[in-house]
């Protein structure tokens, strides 16, 4: 089972968003189960669960983990193909965000568009690498910082921009034969906290 996988097909996305099927996916991410085992957990008849499982299987969201004999019946044990799923903007291709339409480094909506492109591109790269049975070379850095003042935050952004821009200029080999282009995305945003009046006030400062 994969830790996380991307859903690019619109039909598969629709299937995964169905509340009952989403619940079944969550149960099967914990471990393999049969339709009869799942029926009691989700409060549906076994036949109904089987119907939903077949829909999930058609779209590659669940797979056969094994079979077992129970009386005169052979039960199929199903499992989720991943512990978690991310829906790619490709599932809404005609209305997916396009960060190239406008560029505003201080816009939260532009940041969201960049994030959506990141999900789309990395998802496509993972799909291609999986099919080719090749390793995908990526890097990510995640951290948190508490700024004492808005001025400190502005200074941090200025230094971050200058530092990364300098690295790009230093290592960019635009004309290198056999070189491979890479995209660099950096983001700074407030940490999401439990929704309390003080947290909401902090986000709007």
Q: What series of H and E elements makes up the topology?
A: EHHHHEEEHHH
In order across it, which strands form the biggest sheet? 1-4
Count the E strands: 4
Tell me, rounded to a whole number, the average pLDDT. Answer: 91
The secondary structure category is mainly alpha
Measured by DSSP, the beta-strand proportion falls in: 5-15%
Distance between the termini: 42 Å
Report the major sheet.
2 strands, parallel
Number of helices: 7
Low-confidence stretches: none
Radius of gyration over alpha carbons? 23 Å
Q: What general form does the structure show?
A: elongated
Helix content: 40-55%
Question: How is the secondary structure organized here?
Answer:
Layout: E1 5-7, H1 10-17, H2 19-30, H3 35-42, H4 46-58, E2 62-70, E3 73-80, E4 85-87, H5 108-132, H6 150-171, H7 197-203
Parallel strand pairs: 1-4
Antiparallel strand pairs: 2-3
Can I get a quick summary?
This protein is mostly helical and 205 residues long.
Describe the structure.
This protein is 46% helix and 11% strand. With 205 residues, the chain is mainly alpha-helical. The strands form 2 sheets. The protein has a two-stranded parallel sheet. Helix 2 (19-30) packs across helix 4. The radius of gyration is 23 Å and the shape is elongated. The model has no long low-confidence stretch (mean pLDDT 91).
